[in-house]
Each structure stands twice: as structure tokens, then as C-alpha cells.
Amino acid sequence: MQSPKLQADTAPFRLLNLPAEIWTQIIALAVIYKDPITITRSSRVKDQQELVRQPAITRTCRVLRLEALPLFYRHNTFEGWHVHHVQCPRDWLVAIGDANRKAMGSFRFCAQFSASFWEGKFARMGVKVVVEECGSCTQPVCQKEKDANLHGLKDMIVRFV
Asked: Domain-by-domain residue ranges, the chain?
């Protein structure tokens, strides 16, 4: 049998027992990233699922999920590409839900076709957006694109309304 002191020392640590200001800072460190989150980097389904999965801390309990997801979507930069071998990020944007899209505010999107074409595509999926063209894309999304000609891809900002 363990002594009472040893039992007290091995009691589980509970994040939510900390003052709210401290655990909120811990959550922010876990879900806010310096670099943009690119959600269309892989043509392989398993890799793609891993890229778009919400942070692990948001899957631990309801309280952390409610606190962390708004921070995750509001304070990170998300970007996506629509090229021939990569699934369109529209499905992901629909899957995350209206509240998370609104927390995100906007999304950088590099694709062919005009802003009005993409507004129509999003509208048919029930997502209201305003798409603004910002120029042409010059940064490759993956190794295959490094050798490809990116001519014709437009850099756009998708704003959720």
C-alpha cells in the first residue's frame, strides 16, 4: 500500500483545475500556428485527412473544444489550392461548419477560373462568400507543382458572409 504522501504526489494533473487565464494561454499555444495551414497539400486521401484534422486538444473534452476551436479558426491563416490532382478545399470548408467559417473570416485560395465562378460553386454548396482576386499564384503547393507551370492560377481571398 502506498503512503498518503506518495498517493498525493501521483494524483492526476487536470488542466481545467488551473485558473482560466493560464489554461487559455496553454490552449492558444497548442492551436495557434506561426505558418499558414495549407489544407490541400496532398493528393492521398489519408494524408489529406491528417492535414485537415482539428488540433488534438480540441478532441479531449467539450469545454476545451468550445474554447479552442474559435481560437484555432480565428487566429490561424488557412490556404488552399485547386489543382488537377488535389481535392478542392470547398468540401473541407463545408465540413467545418458555419460557426468555424465565420470565426475564420477569410481563406486564401489559389485556383483557376474567375471569382464569380467560385462564388457560384460555394453558393451551390450553401456557403455564402465574397471572392476577391488578388493576383496570380507563384508559390507551388507540392513537389509536383514545383516542376509544373502555375500559369493561369489566380490568388483569391474567400470571405465568409
From this structure: 35-54+73-160
